[in-house]
Fold each of these.
Amino acid sequence: MIEPRTNSPLEFVKIDQPMERVVRITLDRPGANAANTQVLKELHLAFDAVHDASDIDAVLLTGAGKVFCSGNDIHEFAQMDSEYAAELMYRVRRAFWALHDCPVPVVARVNGVAFGTGLALASLSDVVIASDRAVFGLTELDVGVLGGLKFARRLVPEHAVRRMFFTAETYSAEQFKQFGAAITVVPHDSLDEECERILRTIVGKGSVALRMAKQCMNAVEHLDFRTGYEYEQTFTIRMSDRPESKTAVRKVIDDIEARKRAKANK
């Protein structure tokens, strides 16, 4: 089990290990899992702890109860002035970057409402599995703040983002998918089964390959086409000397040969 770098127990973020080599990070704050300063600090600590764990190959990120994350705590917004806002935005960024920089793939299990910060957390994950009860939205203008645009653009096209932001309307998971979001929507009762299936597929690829792939993906995301591909090739070169690489390609070759023999024996 991973251990956050803190002397105090986490209050609103729970960490457990539902599967071998998989850690689950759960937002669990009464009041719709709203992200206040403490939640953001604990998220940062939780994902930092994943950095320190060599025996973890994937993370499942979710919310307790019927909500993924309803956004930032509006009571903190009500108390904000420019000085306090700067501190809060710093806390938000630290939590977001800790998730983005997680060294292993993150699967978001979106079990309900994902507004504002909740949508951002989903967008920063590598795979998004959403219940058909999930609801997405950028409701910032309704509470007098800005933010979330860069994260929403990771999921849906520009004009969908503008519509979401200017109207502050909310959308079902299916509607969000119709906007172009690359998410998987499943019946609510199948959510855990689908998340487990995806996680088992991911961790089966091997620790070294997963960590190198995540590092490579994060690095090339904002590079130009030629520079990005050239950088990506350096990871192929690095992987070529790894025993895991030879084992993986040998398995594929053995499978091909087995199918050929089975076909020839028919």
Amino acid sequence: MSAITKLGCGLQGLLDRLNIFDFLAPLALRLYLAPVFWIAGMEKVNGYDGIVEWFGNKEWGLGLPAPELMAFLATATEVGGAAALLIGLGVRWISLPLMATMAVAAVTVHWHNGWQAIASAKAPFGSEYLGPLAFEDASGAATRLERAKEILQTNGNYEWLTEHGSFVVLNNGIEWATTYFIMLLALFFLGAGRFVSVDYWLRKGLCKG
């Protein structure tokens, strides 16, 4: 065995010993996603009638069939899913309807806006690379953003308004929905993780054989 091979195997062995902390990855995913879905779900709860109307309206909404049922399922999935992710209960199961929710949102709400969640005129890839996923009107977004800044600088306390960050133009593309979908996909295969989840202790107690 060459010196390089020995070094590589030694480094791999070092990384393998870190597997005792492998529960941290699914825990981090769960703790990140739980408030995301809780906030989204509670917004639907607080504006439930409007959500039903938006789901069903074909002129300015999504035009989905059975909007009452769809709104209920989306709300229950997000609120219940947030709680399940937080405590690590049925994580692999709840990941499936949450992924479905993200897929539906990406296709029905965000797809026509392209990839970017936040519009940027300095995006590294244009339409010739990303096709329908590109943000087609980057120059227009930049113009609107500059105009908004001018208005705020003239009529408002711009330094206070931008104290914790710059103003942006929301593009509302599929970027965030896709990101959450991928995180949920990872949880579907990883599970809730060891030690800090109800799933772990239930399995440990019920599946000893």
Amino acid sequence: MIMIERLSLFSALDFAALGFLIGIWLWIGWRIESPAADRPSVSFLMADYRRLWMEQMVTRQPRMFDSALVGHLRQSTAFFTSATMIAIGGGLAMIGNAERIAGVAKDFALGETPAFVWEIKVLAVILLLTNAFLKFVWANRLFGYCSVVMGSVPNEPDDPLAYPRAAQAAELSITAARSFNRGLRATYFALAAAAWLAGAAPLLAATLITAAVLYRREFASQSREVLMGTPPNTAK
């Protein structure tokens, strides 16, 4: 079966739903990372808190609390890295047994669908999980860089390098957090992509629900109200 014939196994709605998933995934990421000035996202607010954290670290003695925080952040990224690796392995195993998936689908009255269709649908989930895996790995590495720079911040606040190095550590932490959040969003949309196994309409619905959940958490959640109550001194 040539590629054109294989692609014909998917309907126009399938292609539209997949394109919608990718478009919403990219749009919500841009909206969260580049919010309007009068309506910052939780991620944007937390970036300012990270800058304030590093400023406070300069005068904090001892700095055990700061090292514990960075260690916790690295553990979180390591956990999600391992989780996505396991999920990717499971997805690859499903592709290797696509015929069984087709059999199960037939039992659930989902029609006589060729194994190639199931392989492509599972592959879409795997690609999103792979993106998440790469983001989590990079976030873990950046938090490591951040911890090293934090260790180089002078203990004396009067040292001319104290606050510039603290600012460097803050930007590394912000970049790491951005990568981590991108990994989480890719994971959310990978779960939405799994709905494609049930059809194009479920994929559209899952994409909308995922986008709504992410938007609410970033722009209309109670945690955002708490952060906006007493914004950091460095907030724009």
